[in-house]
Each structure stands twice: as structure tokens, then as C-alpha cells.
Predict the 3D structure of the following.
Amino acid sequence: MKSILRLLFLLFILSLTLIYQNNIKEFILDNIIYGKSPYEYVDNKYAIPYEFNYVSLTNDYRAKNKQQILDIFYTYLNSGSSEFYFYCDYPECKNDISKMTTDNTFTNINNFVAPFNTYNRLNIAISNWGKIEITLEKAYTNNEITLVSEKMDEIVSHIITDDMTDTEKIKTFHDYIINNTKYDQEYITNNLSDLTNNSHRATGALLYNKALCGGYAHSMSLFLNMLNLPNYRVSSENHIWNLVYLDGKWYHVDLTWDDPMTTNDRDLLLDNYLLINNKKLKSFNTGYHDFDETVYSEASTIY
């Protein structure tokens, strides 16, 4: 008789476990395995307060859909964290993350973040319990940040005045970078592929006076953040440039294409791509400015 009662009791417990398995799992995850707070972080001084159509800041770290993964990743990356974790809370989550690692999703999110908080490489580990752990190799070392920041302060103190409008300030900085930077043709000629090369970052343009499109774009992004203007970098398959929100409208700024290479190595300063709307950008039909309008939707606005 006792054996039967014991069996019935076990069956009863098993039934309750099956019925409330999701609640039990959530309780264990929250209170025993991971704790209530997934990850404590503090924004560093380079974090920006901006939210965009593609990604927004969040305080919910249990991803229930793909958009929440994007928002979580943007929130942590924007904060300057070099490692963080969050939880998958829907069946397709792991597959979604695996796909994101191969379709440039995380690279795209990188473009919405202030340059000093961007990364060169990331590693993702997914546990059986749905814990997603991410470690980053940051794009800038602390020493590089110090040197670039000092150079930016020096430049701004010499060329920017308080009586300038934001448009005038952007034009002045645009001209300075172009007049003091050459496109790194050697990188292209030698068919290099090192994404950590200085020419891809502001260190190239500001410290070594040569850059690729990434170096031009990072430099302008740093300046736009100094002006407290919402902005991000737009990338196509083989190019990157800036987008800035100015006087209620979004405008493209492309320093690289305003600093063209010439056959006689003569320096040119153009403003064809300075604060232009999307209609004008498309009219140039360069083939290098074809971007994903579902990601960079602000950039596709027609005025």
C-alpha cells in the first residue's frame, strides 16, 4: 500500500513538474543559476544617449524575439562593456544569433555606436540553458583613446569657434580632415586585409594623416559626438560614411569621396558629399553608396 501511495505521489509531482516546467525553469534560472540581474554595467563617458529605428536602448535582458537581441547587443556595446551576457527566452533564439554572426548584423550595430566603444572582433558562447556570453576585442586601446582625444581637442581648439553654427563647424572639420589626410592607397595596392590597421580607425586620420573610409568616418563621428548631434555610420558592401541629424533632418557626409585620389597626386578638397540628402546621394549613382535601407532607415529618408 505504501509503495502505491509513494508511486502516486511521485506521479503527482511529475505531473506538476510537466505542467509548470517553464515556471520552474525560470525560477531556477533567475534565483539559482544566473540570479535576478543578468549583468551589471555602467555606461562609460563615450556612451551615447541616442536611439534609432534599427536599435534602441533596453533594460530587458531576456530576449524574447530577434529585435530584443539587437537592442540588448546595442545597449551593452554602447555602454563600452568588453564582455557581457544575456539570456535567450524563445525557441529560435540560438538560430537567430548564429545567423547574425554571418549576415553582418553585429557589424551593422557596431556602426550605431561611438567609435571608442566599437569592436574589431567578438566571440559568442551559447550555453544549453540559453545564456549568451559575448567577449569583445575593442577597436581602440586606452592609450589610443587618450592620444586621439588629445588630438581632437587640439584640432577643435584651433579651428572651431563658439560663434559658428553647427553646419559651419561640420564644414570646418570636414575641410581640416581632408586637407590633412591622404587616402591610404598603399593599403589597397598591397591588397591588405587587416581590419585592425590604423587606416580603418580615427588613429589613421588623426595621428598618421592617412586613412581609409573607416578612418575618415570614425573621425567625423567623434566630432559629431562632441557637438552632441545624433549620428551614425552607414556602410554598404565596400564603403562607410556618416549620417547626421541636423536641424530636424538627416544628412549624409562622406569625407572619403570629398578627398579623391588624383593621377598626379594633387590634393583636392570637394564638398559634393557634405550634408547632402538621400535624393542627391542616389543621383550620383556611385555603386558604393547602396546601403541596406531596412538597417539604416534614417539614411533613406527623402527630403
